[in-house]
Amino acid sequence: MPLALVLVFALTRIPGVMPPNFSAAYGLLFCGAVYLTGAAAWWLPLAAMAVTDLGLCAYYTWSGGVNAFQPYLLVNYLGYGVIVALGRRFKPQSSWLWLLSGGILGAILFYLITNTAAWFFNPFHNPEYTKDFAGWLTALTKGTAGYPPTWEFFRNTLLSGGLFTGLFAGAMKLAAALEPEEETEEEGEGADEAEPAQEAEAPAGP
Predict the structure, then answer these.
(1) pLDDT for res 95
(2) Which residues, including other chains, have CB under 8 Å from residue 77's CB and lie 6 or more apart?
(3) Which residues have a Cβ under 8 Å from the Cβ of 28 and sit 6 or more positions away?
(4) pLDDT in tens, 72-117
(5) What is the predicted pLDDT for the residue at 68?
(6) In this structure, which long-range contacts are made by residues 10-13, counting pairs with CB atoms below 8 Å and at least 24 apart in sequence?
(7) Domain coordinates in residue numbering, the chain
(8) DSSP result, the chain
């Protein structure tokens, strides 16, 4: 199941498949942290992010003629790490609604971290990103001229975080619910086979 989730995530990162910032990444990182154990909860989702990021950067560098390998992209991995750390505080036994809430919270934190970093470092020297509260608020809501407003990115981040967390967590809950039924059926068949043997060993009556 975790490998299937990684595959779904990789497919959603193909350019043009999803709207801007509408990504399965937030749900994958959160649910991976919840359901994977040990170090795999960290390295598997983050490795999936790194591999697909390298592929995307290579694609945009080759097709767009721009150097997409920029150091500021590393800020995203701070946001990814926060989502994973948040997911580690949840358990697979948590309710679906509680997991959904956690995934949405992770998406919100990612948006706040990355947009705050874009405002603070301002790598493209956007004049709207003044170093005050108004500039920070502009970075979170309006963005810079010539591009879609950042509140649309926030909307897509929020919706995709909730959607894919709900789908991933729901798939895992469904898989867990089906396992006990299969085990019960196997135990029942074993008990039926044991009954004749017990009857044969019973002592004959007078």
Answers:
(1) 95
(2) 46, 49
(3) 5, 6, 9, 45, 48, 164, 168
(4) 788 889 999 999 999 999 999 999 999 999 999 999 999 999 999 9
(5) 66
(6) 10/48, 10/51, 10/52, 13/52, 13/55, 13/56
(7) 2-181
(8) -HHHHHHHHHHHTSTTSS-TT--SHHHHHHHHHHHS-TTHHHHHHHHHHHHHHHHHHHHHHHHHSS----GGGHHHHHHHHHHHHHHTTS-TTS-HHHHHHHHHHHHHHHHHHHHHHHHHH-TT--TT--SSHHHHHHHHHT--TTS--HHHHHHHHHHHHHHHHHHHHHHHHHHHHHHHHHHHHHHHHHHHHHHHHHHHHSPPP-
Q: What is the dihedral of CA 74, 79, 83, 89, to 10 degrees?
A: 100
pLDDT score recorded for residue 201:
46
- pTM value? 0.78
Say how far apart CA 104 and CA 31 lie, in whole Å.
11
Token pair in block for residue 84: 């994973």
Residue type at 199? E
Residue 150, both tokens: 């950042």
What local confidence, expressed as pLDDT, does residue 200 receive?
46
pLDDT < 50 regions, the chain: 184, 194, 196-206
Task: Determine the length of the chain.
Answer: 206
pLDDT the model gives residue 197: 47
